[in-house]
Amino acid sequence: MARLLLVEDEELLGEMIVEGLEAARHEVTWCRNGAEGFERACEGGWAAILLDLMLPGLDGWSICRRLRDRRDPTPILMLTARDEVEEKVRGLELGADDYLTKPFAFPELKARIAALLRRERLQRRRTLSVADLVIDTELHEVTRGGKQVSLTRREFDLLEALAARVGHVVSKETLRGIWGGDSEVGSNTIDVHMVSLRRKLDSDRSESERLFHTVYGVGYILREPAESAPK
Fold first, then answer.
1. pLDDT 10s digits, 128-155
2. Long-range contacts made by residues 206-211, C-beta under 8 angstroms, separation at least 24?
3. In angstroms, what is the C-alpha Rg of the chain?
4. What domains sit in the chain, N to C, each tagged with a CATH number?
């Protein structure tokens, strides 16, 4: 079951979509205008957003753009009555993940949603990101600001542990545990690795752009800079 947001002003189509998706065991919230749809979308927690383009108040393109400006990664499936290539390209360039042209068969809608959810699950398992820092947990690659950064295996393990708990303090004991409680890994060893991580990822950044922070006597926290966090 997935929690889905539908933003659609056509009454009959909306009823059909809600009925079909609920029969498929999804939880659906239906908004009938753009302003309400954007407000509900900003609440977060949606597995995917089904977004009509032609909406009263605030159109689908504007909603998509605003969500992506907020760094909201929720998958967006655009529903459009227009079959022009330019319209579809515009939506994809604004950050939509897929589109479906009306009228459509309900089985195709279900298949598109399933593909979006499957892709999102795979992507979530593979990458972690904080501001402009991206960690590929499958390839063990790290970039910041689009530039690749070379890390040792232990530096990568520390970074991954912090990124998986972004915004929360991670104790030194917890960080030591990621190496299986290796007796050779003491508190000072973790400190040394953290100094190296900061040098590689934070040293050329202003104080306000830095991601790594020490909570003295406790551990470390990886935190998104205030100016890049969603408003």
1. 889 899 998 878 899 998 899 999 988 9
2. 209/131, 211/130, 211/131, 211/133
3. 21
4. 3-126 (3.40.50.2300), 131-228 (1.10.10.10)
